[in-house]
Write a structure and sequence with these properties.
single chain, mainly alpha, elongated
């Protein structure tokens, strides 16, 4: 296994996991009674909150709806496609 293959594999899993966590975070916004400081919800909140806090300063809630998790799903999906897509930058190295 080459370093490039290992990098592609690791980055693919990491970006996919972050997309999944942000999708769970979007679903959790539908349930405001969910306590994000308790298990299992803190397993979703803990890795996503460092991304959401600075973005909330840039993009305020629209109509009382926090859209920052949706923005991060888009950003991570775009990164994954640019780096690891069929013609992604890291795929061209192999």
């Amino acid at each position: 296994m080459t370093v490039a293959t290992l990098t592609n594999w690791t980055l693919g899993i990491l970006l996919g996991l972050m997309i999944l966590l942000f999708i769970f975070r979007i679903v959790l916004t539908w349930y405001p009674q969910a306590d994000l400081n308790r298990l299992p919800f803190n397993l979703v909140a803990w890795p996503t909150e460092p991304f959401l806090v600075p973005m909330r300063k840039i993009v305020p809630p629209l109509g009382g709806v926090d859209i920052t998790p949706i923005i991060w799903v888009g950003i991570f999906s775009l990164l994954r496609e640019i780096l690891l897509g069929q013609q992604g930058l890291l795929r061209m190295i192999n």
